[in-house]
Amino acid sequence: MTQAVGSSCERSRRPALGLIAGASLLLAAGAGASAQGVVKEKHGDWEVRCETPPGAAREQCALLQSVAAEDKPNINLVVIVLKTADGKSRLLRVIAPLGVLLPSGLGLKIDNADVGRAGFVRCLPTGCVAEVVMEEKLIEQMKKGQNATFIIFQTPEEGIGIPLALAGFKEGFETLP
Predict the structure, then answer these.
(1) What's 11-175's CATH class?
(2) Phi/psi of residue 35, each to 5°?
(3) Which long-range contacts (CB under 8 A, 24 or more apart) does 135-139 make?
(4) Percentage of the chain surpassing pLDDT 70?
């Protein structure tokens, strides 16, 4: 990720139900399953959700957290961490609401330190998806950090920071198959 900038706003623990369904779609190999997956474990504000996509030989699991901005209830994010199909890498996927400014990408700060930006790779009916392969440095920052702030842009000048608790991330990450 490259340098991230932005402001912060309060978060709500209200689930973004429409986006959780979209997150589940991303877990499926062909992005075609409609089930939301089953919550297997909870670690702080994080959930481990699992499902067996059609045609898959085994269950696939992801670590997931959904947050909404209190002062802008239409601004929701779903943050997903999962293993690639070959099992060699971890992906960080974030589903942001439709209407975000795509060229500005998605910014990330961990404990107020800029981590960088990720580009949006596609938009679905449930939101736009930013995705990065997680390098060890990012994984360690998230395991050791207290809070992350994801920054989306509605205009080039207006960054909206959405705080995300990292409590439970380390434990949840270590349980992913």
Answers:
(1) mainly beta
(2) -75, 150
(3) 138/1, 138/92, 139/90, 139/173
(4) 79
